[in-house]
Write a structure and sequence with these properties.
The protein is α/β, with parallel strands linked by helices and 554 residues long. Helix content is 21%, strand content 29%. It binds alpha-L-arabinofuranose. The site of alpha-L-arabinofuranose has 10 residues, from loops.
């Protein structure tokens, strides 16, 4: 089905999650309405919800972040300067490293010391389907370890992001983990680890003070194929006696894949059996959820189940948003199961991998395994996911979009001396004012959008979003998913009067629009004036758009 053929008919009423209500055909005359309930706070939005993820995978580290100190490409200590400058604009808060699946094959000792003496190792992704289609000998399959702990911490320092390191649970032991913590955090001059840190190609005398530590990654799969009970035992062993060095270490356990509630239940039940007090020592439970097209049904063919990043039809557009929108119920269901065992909810949700995942073909350079373009559709997907996290600010303490550059759902693309911002970057920049603000409840009322799934009628919500308040400043972000229709909408703030408002909009006539090195500003947000009449705000949300309204309350 092609985009132009979508029927814009509206569907029967239903109440959906996330404070969304849908109009019937008969109430269409009302158009749409958003109520912001500022007297109903949810929680402070942890800035870490706007986090990122860097894995030694394809073009993320090499060609993406790291260009080397002797490169002609402008760099700061070997790190691509254009990336550093752009990162600062989106306030990256926290950056996860070095994986992903790679983390459980990584020995941190390979990435420290004199760069020229570091070993070259086979990368975890060498045998992946993505690598197989390119042949074994692409350079990214053999990691020179030129970018390691010190380089990553330098990157964090330059971008003002806090580090979140993922420890190897499958391939190394607990002692190796303790020594990585010692290397990063022990005070200058106290340990051999501290001395090692102060030597090498990018020395640091002062400790890095890393607080976030992941213990394994996807331990149900690439991280060791463990059962949740086995993983609970490993997690406890790894975290039982980690040296603190006066820091409030925050351990993050490898949580479930999408809707695998058995993994969550198994881990929490087993952990509780050893003592409910253990939940005090777990900061987060790492949920992963990727969206990919499943039209035609899920298949065992790794690529056939995934659509194309740039060429998609109406069905694939809505289906991908629907897949991403499952995040809302995933958060609710995992949270409920966690609460059955951890009644005080000491453990928060950390969605440390999320985003859209497409089949190969749109990567900007062949060695960029899992590389893909990012269109307006991906910006909308990012917007609706960030809105979901904001609405669950009481449950979600961190989230990390996968991955930072030249990979899945990336805000940035780079190859050699070329660099571009994707529409996903613009979503992150537009949403940045939510960081650290107070999330408040919202109600969205709008017609649902009809489309066809597998030749049968289907529908998706029309308007969705989230709101937060910081003093007299209210930030309201809104996704209009409808490919064809703008939505004339009344925005009402319960219990306050609107003094003035301004809009920033990301919208293109073609939802396939994306930025390239030749045309890096094809998709960019624009500012729009908003008229407020006697405290009344009516705004027209463009089709397939992302809008940020910044509202000053009287
Ligand atoms: O982000 C790509 C991969 O997806 C990660 O390495 C892994 O954790 C997940 O399966």
């Amino acid at each position: 089905m092609v985009l132009g053929a979508v029927a814009a008919a509206k569907n029967a009423a239903a109440i959906t999650g996330g404070g969304r209500r849908n109009l019937t055909q008969s109430s269409r005359a009302l158009e749409s309405r958003i109520d912001v309930l500022i007297k109903e706070p949810i929680a402070t939005i942890n800035p870490d919800i706007y986090g990122h993820f860097v894995e030694h995978l394809g073009g993320v580290v090499y060609d993406g972040i790291w260009v080397g100190e002797n490169s002609k490409i402008p760099n700061t200590n070997g790190i691509r300067t254009a990336l550093v400058e752009a990162m600062r604009r989106i306030k990256p808060s926290v950056i996860r490293y070095p994986g992903g699946c790679f983390a459980d094959s990584y020995d941190w000792r390979d990435g420290i010391g004199e760069r020229a003496k570091r070993p070259r190792r086979t990368n975890f992704w060498v045998d992946s389907p993505e690598s197989q289609v390119r042949g074994q000998n692409i350079p990214q399959n053999y990691d020179p370890n030129h970018f390691g702990t010190n380089e990553f911490l330098r990157f964090c320092n330059l971008t003002n992001g806090r580090p979140y390191l993922a420890a190897n649970l499958r391939g190394l032991g607990a002692q190796d983990f303790y020594e990585w913590v010692e290397y990063c955090n022990s005070p200058a001059g106290t340990t051999t680890g501290a001395e090692m840190r102060a030597g090498g190609s990018q020395p640091s005398r002062e400790p890095f003070k890393v607080e976030f530590w992941g213990v394994g990654n996807e331990s149900w799969g690439c991280g060791g194929n463990l059962t949740p009970e086995e993983y609970s035992a490993e997690f406890r062993r790894f975290t039982a006696a980690v040296p603190r060095y006066g820091l409030p270490l925050k351990f993050i356990a490898s949580g479930a894949n999408a809707d695998d509630l058995n993994w969550t239940r198994g881990f929490f039940a087993q952990t509780r059996e050893k003592g409910a007090g253990l939940f005090n020592s777990i900061y987060g439970w790492g949920l992963h959820h990727y969206a990919w097209n499943v039209s035609g049904g899920r298949t065992t063919d790794w690529f056939a189940g995934k659509g194309d990043a740039v060429k998609f039809d109406t069905e694939q557009y809505y289906e991908l948003l629907r897949e991403a929108d499952r995040m809302d119920s995933l958060i609710n269901t995992h949270w409920t199961v966690m609460g059955e065992f951890d009644r005080q909810h000491h453990v928060k949700l950390i969605v440390d991998e999320w985003g859209a995942w497409y089949k190969p073909g749109t990567e900007i350079a062949p060695p960029h395994l899992l590389g893909q373009q990012s269109t307006m559709r991906d910006a909308l997907l990012a917007g609706l996911t960030l809105d979901t996290f904001n609405r669950h600010a009481d449950k979600v303490a961190m989230a990390n979009v996968a991955q930072l550059i030249n990979c899945l759902h990336s805000p940035f693309l780079a190859h050699e001396d070329k660099f571009a911002l994707t529409p996903t970057f613009h979503a992150f920049e537009m949403y940045a004012p939510h960081q650290g603000a107070q999330a408040v409840r919202t109600e969205f009322v709008s017609p649902r959008v009809a489309y066809t799934r597998n030749s049968k009628p289907a529908d998706f919500w029309g308007l969705g979003g989230s709101a937060s308040i910081n003093g007299k400043q209210l930030t309201l972000t809104v996704v209009n998913s409808d490919l064809r229709e703008a939505r004339e909408t009344e925005v009402a703030i319960a219990g306050a009067r609107i003094a003035q408002a301004a809009a920033r909009v990301l919208a293109e006539t073609d939802v396939h629009a994306h930025n390239t090195f030749e045309n890096p500003r094809a998709v960019e947000p624009r500012d729009e004036q908003v008229r407020v009449n006697n405290g009344r705000l009516v705004y027209r949300f463009a089709p397939a758009s992302l809008t940020r309204l910044q509202i000053t309350l009287a």
